[in-house]
Automatic annotation (TrEMBL):
Disordered: region residues: 350-369
Protein name stated in the entry: Flagellar hook-associated protein 2 C-terminal domain-containing protein
Compositional bias segments (type: Acidic residues): 350-363
Species of origin: Paenibacillus rigui
GO biological-process terms attached to the record: bacterial-type flagellum-dependent cell motility
GO CC terms in record: bacterial-type flagellum filament cap
Amino acid sequence: MYFNVMQVARTYRANALWHSGEEAWRQRGRSLPSRLMAPVEPKRSAPVPGAVVPSSFEQFALETTQGLAAVLNAAVRVKQAVRKLAADSQMAALDQRTVRISHPDVLSAFAAPGAQIRSYTIQVDQAAAAPLVEGTVLPSQAETAIAVGSNQMKLTYVDGTAPFSVYIVRSDTNLQALRKIQAALNQMSLPVKASLILDDDEGTVRLRVEGTMTGSGHTFAITDVYGSAAHLTGIGPFPYTGKDAHYRVDDGEQIVSAANQVMLDNGKVTLTLLEASELPVELSILPDSFMASQGLHQVTARYNELLAALQHGLRFLNRPNVNRAFEEAEGLGLSLALNPVPVVAAVEAPDEQAEGQEQEAEPLPDTPWNRIGLSQFPDGTLQVDAAALEQLLAARFTEWQAQLRAPEGPVSTLVRSLNRLLSLPTEELLDKRKAAYRSFASYQFRPWGSLRTYLPLPLSGMLVNRMF
């Protein structure tokens, strides 16, 4: 598409220079020289006396190039907006999902794009937990009772054992001693994590050791090998075992799992169980109404931009060819832009004339766009019907989504028509009957033409090679 636009621009510019230059030399009674310099355009704000004024042809070339670029760019932007809204991909707005949870303190949930829109009832009888021990509460600044010197301990877990030790000096407080044990456990990459629980108000501290994996299959024990550090701090010698999760989905049988992550809808819905609850949790997977609404608003805006570009291009577009591109989209309103119906002024009553107020145009009663929450006006423009769209998103989203993606629906039909428009050769988009356009006949590149002598370049483009 951009190649076509640049092709038009280059050809217009080259022929405009030849047109202006030859016209200037003819007025002086001389033939075109072998080398033609481009005329210098004066500034619009301060015209230079005697300077070459751009011809009507050059102005026509500029306006036509810009107008054609606007039409083609608008068509591409409509396709991009449709793709973001309804393309069959994880990025499409129609496939985005949100979740609603009746008790968010019991579980959390995430729904991936394309998840089935439905509700679940989740009963959490027990959340999975890792093995955990919280040691004895000790005065943080009191001198530790752990024996001075090296204290050796052993961590026993499912896959083996790991020895570790701490060295206590006479001046160590409980806080300092527990920090040494914490550091010894954490620096060995063991399946446990140690932390301190500080209470500044009470001036106390205790050691907390927790496994990194949940489930009853995971257990650990810390025992003293030499010294009494584990016993005095309250983290040994007993084994500590994790817990499995117990839950039910939609009144089904109880499921036991070592993890709190639950996969539903073939992995598209992920639950994380947080705590047990006597009451069932209602989980609803919903369409992302905000994303879908924003996507439809974007399509509407881009569609209206295309209509405006087509209406502006009536001066140079080849209407029969463009109409054929949109032939399948008859009834979508694009023909209203290319073939505008003249407005007949109505005779107003005296009191209405006195008010001097124009009545707003009413939307058309029945168009293909109504089924997807849009209103269309007599000039072809679209507007989102907020009330209708809200109802569709809330109660009939699946039906609305099917309409947007239906092969014979308005959106798919529009995209096919735009594809045909963008695939047309550039010269077929322009009206060759325009007088300024016909003047190019004198400047077509032919092997036997004089233009080859003056400008020996392999020019290509719709206006040079293909027009006639």
